[in-house]
Amino acid sequence: MITSDISSVLRHFKTEGSHAHARPFGSGHIHSTWLIEAGNKHDPDYILQKFNSNVFPLTAETMNNIRLVTGHLRQKWGPGSGFEVPELIECTDGGVYHTGSDGVHWRLYRRINPGISYDQVPNENVAYEAGKIFGKFIAYLSDLQPDKLSVVIPGFHSAELRYEQLQTAVKNDPAGRRAEVEAEIAFAGKHYDAMLELPRRQQSGEVPLRVTHNDTKLNNVLFDDRGRAVSVIDLDTVMPGLSLYDFGDLVRTAAGTGDEDEADLNRIGFNRALYKAIEKGFLEQTRHFLTPAETALMPLSARYMTWIMGIRFLADYINGDVYYQTHYPGQNLRRCRAQFRLMETMEF
Ligand code: ADP
Ligand code: GN1
Ligand code: MG
Asked: Closest Cα partner for 204 from 82, 306, 291?
């Protein structure tokens, strides 16, 4: 079944075939996503997204970044390469997104099929493949000048900015939740100085700005049914960044045990073999151009990104769950606690 609302959005895109079903899809925290299944098995399926302009207010710039990056990747990751570049479907008016009369933005991708995604890593091969495809992603974009891309979320992975945002949340305490999370606020503060090592090494020039993905969680990689990573999706945050952000966030999501919102903290642990598999895949693609500091700081980057995500979930909990999609009360706090436990268990 397809509701009339979804049908009327789809009408603005140049699609092929008929559409039989639409159902909520994936486990992203930002956009609302539906899988649009074709009426006939020879026709393509699509991925429809209601774009979150609260998180990405620079919609045109964000979509333009995606166009630039997919265009660049397509030159190297073309047909026959075994990789699939996400493909935006053009609108009937020639644009790459449709704005409804209520101001809501929509976009449509061709579905990468089967396009298997994992919220938790099932084995070392998946960890290795994910490391390799994100390494390849940075390598293939290394000849695209970072300043060609718009900075769509300034300070996205800045420890200073994220810590300041946490302090603002704590000070204003808009949802009256502060007293409940004093231990987590203290944990965030205890590690702040150590995290500043990364921005310091960036300022010194030892760690360069590159075009990076910046949202390299494991479920932003799609796999085929033989366990090969075939695509990198969720390109909204591709902008100037550090290779270490990409490596670190992948380790956060693919080298640990337990869900991102695991309630039983005893189930959270860091798996060094998975870490090594990610590192192997990533370095195979990048070691020839990474600077010595980028390689040396890889373990720190895993702690850094896990800390950043922990404090972002914490700030959102204190703010009353206004940023991330949540499915039950207290989910952001659970996510925060799980990140902090993971960070504590990381040994390299
Ligand atoms: P969010 O920013 O909310 O995480 P994503 O762009 O990651 O949104 O999409 C959410 C989910 O939809 C993904 O985790 C994936 O399962 C699925 N998905 C997105 N784009 C595609 C695509 N082109 N082909 C197949 N699945 C996709
Ligand atoms: C969000 O879009 P998604 O679910 O892949 C977030 C990331 C966080 C992640 C935590 C734009 O990613 O920064 O790491 O949740 N994306 C944005 O799971 O804030
Ligand atoms: Mg995603």
From this structure: 291
